[in-house]
Design goal:
Blueprint (H helix, E strand, L loop, with lengths): L1 H17 L8 H10 L12 E7 L12 H6 L8 E3 L5 E3 L2 E6 L4 E6 L13 H12 L14 E8 L2 E6 L40 E6 L3 E6 L14 E7 L2 H9 L5 E4 L5 H4 L4 E16 L9 H10 L2 H9 L3 E3 L20 H10 L3 E3 L2 E6 L2 E4 L1 E7 L3 H17 L2 E7 L1 H10 L4 E7 L7 H4 L10 H11 L4 H18 L2 E14 H5 L7
Parallel strand pairs: 1-10, 17-18, 17-19
Antiparallel strand pairs: 2-3, 4-5, 5-7, 6-7, 8-9, 9-10, 11-20, 12-19, 12-20, 13-20, 14-15, 15-16
Helix pairs in contact: 1-2, 7-9, 8-10, 13-14
Length: about 525
C-alpha cells in the first residue's frame, strides 16, 4: 500500500503547493489520499522551494504562448473567471457569480478586492481587454475556442459585465477558464511584441520576480486574495531548456523536481530509477458510433449484446499498450457527473440478450427471421485507412465478434472519404474519437444530429433539463438517468482514452512522507 499512498500524497501536496494540474486527479485518487494522510503529520519538513522546467520557451504571456509547459505553470500566476476542481467541476475564481438570463445571455459579477501583482485593482476592463485580445484577428491563442460563439461583451459597471452568444452553448460557464491579463499593464504597448510579455503581472498565488536566459524565478504573491489557498512553497525556480531532450536529461540529473509528460515510454529517456511516476486519464477518447438507423443495428438488443462481447482491455493490451486505458464513456476521466459503472465483457449474457430478442445461433452465425426473410447479424466498421492504430483496433474487434458468430467487415477509407462518411452518417459503425472538453456537455453524443442518428424522447427531455439548470442535485439525477439509458440503448461503445504522466524526483517525494507511511 505504501507506494500507492505515496504517489497520491505527492499529487495532493503538489497541487496544494503549486496549484496547477488539479483537474488531473480522479475521485478515487482523492478519496484514497484523504483516507491515507495521517492528520497528525507535520509540515516542518516541507520543501519551500520547487524546481520546475520549460523546454523551448517562447513567452510568459499565457494568451500568446504555444508551449504546454508555460500553459501549465501559468495557472499559478494568472487566474481565470472560473476554474475546475479535481472532479472537473466548475468553481468561481475571479468571477463571483455567473447568472444565465436566457439561452444566449450571461451576466458575470466579478470578485471585488482582487489586486494585480503591481497593487492596482482588478476590474471589468481587464476581462474585456483579455476577451478582445483572444478574439483579435492575427493573434494565435490556444484559448480561441473557449470563446467560439461569443457575439459581444458589454460593460455594465466596474464589476459587472454581460456576455451574449450567437448560439446556445451548453455549460458555457465552463469555457471561461482562460487567464485574465491586466489592461493597464499593457497600456500603450504592442500586445504581441512587448517586452512586458517576459513577465506579465497576474492575480495568482505566485508572481514573476525575475527572468533571465536560464531561469524564471517565482515568489509568493504577498497580496493574493484567496487566503484558503495559500501555498506552502515560497519560491519556484523554472529552469529553461532548449529542447525536451535537455529537460529530460536535467530531470535525470536531479536538477528538476516535477515534470508533466505526454509520452508513455518516458523510461527510454530517463531510465526507471530515482523518481515516482503518476499516470492519469487524459482527454483523448476513442469510441464506436453505431448508426441506429441501420436495419440490423437499429435493434438496441443487438447493440447491447455487442457491448457485452468487446473486451476493451484486450484491445488496449493487443493494439495500444502503455499510454492508454480502457474507457466506457466520454466523462469517465473523473468528471463529477459520471457514474462509475463499468461494462465487463460477458459472452453468456450477450447470447441471452440476442436469444431473447429472437436471434438464433446456427452454423456459427447469428440469424433472425423477420417478415419471411432471414436476417444475418453482420455489419461493417468504417475507419480512416491512414490510421494504422485504429486499423489494428478495428481488426481486433472484428476478430472478437467473429469468434462470437457476428460477421464484421472493416471498411477502409481515405481521409476525405472518411470525413465525408462521418459527416453524412454514411456508415454502419464508425471508429472515431475526440478530445473531451472540460465541460460535462454530452451534446455531441445525444443532441440533435448526433453521430449515431440516435433519438430517444427521454434523452431529449434530459438534455433540455441539464441545459437549463445549475442545480447540482438535478444535474446528478439526470446524468444518472442518461447514463442508465446509455448502457441499455448503447448508441455508442466507448473503447479507450490516452493517459498522461507526472514524474517526480525521488528526493522531492521523500520530503513529503507522513508518519503513517
Amino acid at each position: 500500500m505504501g507506494n500507492n499512498v505515496l504517489k497520491y500524497i505527492f499529487i495532493i501536496i503538489v497541487i496544494g503547493l503549486i496549484g496547477f494540474g488539479a483537474y488531473k486527479m480522479t475521485k478515487n485518487s482523492e478519496k484514497q489520499t484523504e483516507e491515507s494522510i495521517d492528520q497528525t503529520s507535520t509540515v516542518n519538513t516541507i520543501q519551500t522551494d520547487i524546481r520546475l522546467a520549460i523546454a523551448s520557451f517562447d513567452t510568459m504571456n499565457p494568451l500568446l504562448s504555444n508551449n504546454r509547459n508555460v500553459q501549465e505553470i501559468s495557472r499559478i500566476i494568472y487566474e481565470p473567471l472560473v476554474t475546475l476542481n479535481g472532479n472537473y467541476k466548475m468553481e468561481y475564481c475571479l468571477a463571483e457569480e455567473i447568472a444565465k438570463t436566457d439561452d444566449l445571455n450571461y451576466v458575470v459579477k466579478l470578485r471585488q478586492g482582487v489586486l494585480w501583482q503591481d497593487g492596482s485593482n482588478f476590474n471589468v476592463d481587464d476581462v474585456i481587454f483579455t476577451v478582445d485580445k483572444i478574439l483579435k484577428e492575427g493573434i494565435s491563442t490556444v484559448y480561441a475556442n473557449n470563446l467560439r460563439g461569443l457575439a459581444f461583451i458589454e460593460r455594465i459597471d466596474d464589476y459587472t459585465l454581460k456576455m451574449t452568444l450567437s448560439e446556445p452553448i451548453d455549460f458555457f460557464q465552463y469555457h471561461l477558464t482562460f487567464p485574465i491579463l491586466s489592461k493597464n499593464f499593457y497600456e500603450g504597448q504592442d500586445f504581441t511584441t512587448s517586452e512586458k510579455n517576459l513577465a506579465p503581472i497576474g492575480t495568482g498565488m505566485f508572481r514573476i520576480e525575475s527572468v533571465d536566459s536560464n531561469v524564471i524565478k517565482l515568489v509568493q504573491n504577498e497580496t493574493y486574495w484567496n487566503s484558503s489557498k495559500q501555498p506552502m512553497a515560497k519560491e519556484i525556480s523554472i529552469n529553461l531548456y532548449g529542447s525536451t531532450g535537455e529537460l529530460y536529461n536535467a530531470f535525470k540529473n536531479g536538477e528538476i523536481d516535477i515534470v508533466d509528460v505526454k509520452i508513455s515510454n518516458i523510461e527510454e529517456y530517463i531510465g526507471s530509477l530515482g523518481y515516482k511516476k503518476i499516470e492519469y486519464r487524459a482527454r483523448d477518447y476513442d469510441f464506436l458510433a453505431i448508426n441506429t438507423q441501420n436495419e440490423v443495428l437499429s435493434d438496441s438488443f443487438v447493440r447491447k449484446a455487442i457491448s457485452k462481447i468487446i473486451d476493451k482491455n484486450n484491445v488496449v493490451a493487443s493494439c495500444l499498450g502503455a499510454g492508454f486505458v480502457s474507457s466506457n464513456f466520454s466523462l469517465d476521466m473523473g468528471n463529477w457527473l459520471y457514474s462509475d459503472t463499468w461494462v465487463e465483457p460477458n459472452m453468456e449474457e450477450a447470447a441471452q440478450i440476442l436469444s431473447q430478442a429472437g436471434w438464433e445461433y446456427k452454423n456459427n452465425r447469428w440469424h433472425k427471421k423477420t417478415d419471411g426473410n432471414t436476417l444475418e447479424l453482420a455489419f461493417s466498421i468504417t475507419i480512416n485507412g491512414n490510421d494504422r492504430t485504429r486499423f489494428a483496433v478495428a481488426e481486433n474487434i472484428k476478430n472478437q465478434l467473429a469468434n462470437f458468430g457476428i460477421q464484421v467487415f472493416v471498411r477502409e477509407l481515405n481521409n476525405e472519404n472518411y470525413r465525408a462518411s462521418l459527416e453524412n452518417r454514411n456508415f454502419d459503425v464508425i471508429l472515431t474519437g475526440m478530445t473531451c472538453g472540460f465541460s460535462p456537455s454530452v451534446k455531441t453524443f445525444f443532441g440533435e444530429g448526433n453521430l449515431a442518428n440516435y433519438g430517444n424522447d427521454q434523452i431529449t427531455e434530459i438534455m433540455k433539463i441539464v441545459s437549463n439548470t445549475s442545480d447540482d442535485a438535478i444535474l446528478h439525477e439526470n446524468y444518472d438517468k442518461l447514463y442508465t439509458i446509455y448502457l441499455e440503448e448503447v448508441p455508442y461503445i466507448g473503447l479507450y482514452r490516452n493517459t498522461d504522466i507526472v514524474i517526480c524526483n525521488q528526493g522531492f517525494v521523500r520530503k513529503y512522507n507522513t508518519k503513517r507511511i
